[in-house]
Amino acid sequence: MGEHIVLKEEDSAMLEAVVGSEACNFLLSTACDDSLSEFNPPGEILNLQQGLCQIVDGSSWNYAIFWQIASSKSGRSVLMWGDGHCRDPKVMAAERGDGG
């Protein structure tokens, strides 16, 4: 079995904000680096993060996720996280004026 995936603190916080603490802990504890090693994700999309930020900031959405289809050498496909942006819940509360 491969090594567990380690996320940057910012990415881990975003994941926890979207799926909740319990689900975040479960996902991180069961995921490992080699679980998706046979799949080759598509190339990076320029300005994707900027576009996701604009979508979230220009709407009432809390987060935007871009999913990508990746194919393996054997022809199998999987839906993979491409990128995402999550608005800080504290910023949203301040914008609404309810203080959280």
Automatic annotation (TrEMBL):
The keyword Cell inner membrane does not apply. Coiled coil: none annotated. Its main location: nucleus. InterPro entries: AIB/MYC-like, MYC/MYB_N. Keywords: Nucleus, Oxidoreductase, Transcription, Transcription regulation. This is Transcription factor. It is found in: Nucleus. GO terms for cellular component: nucleus.
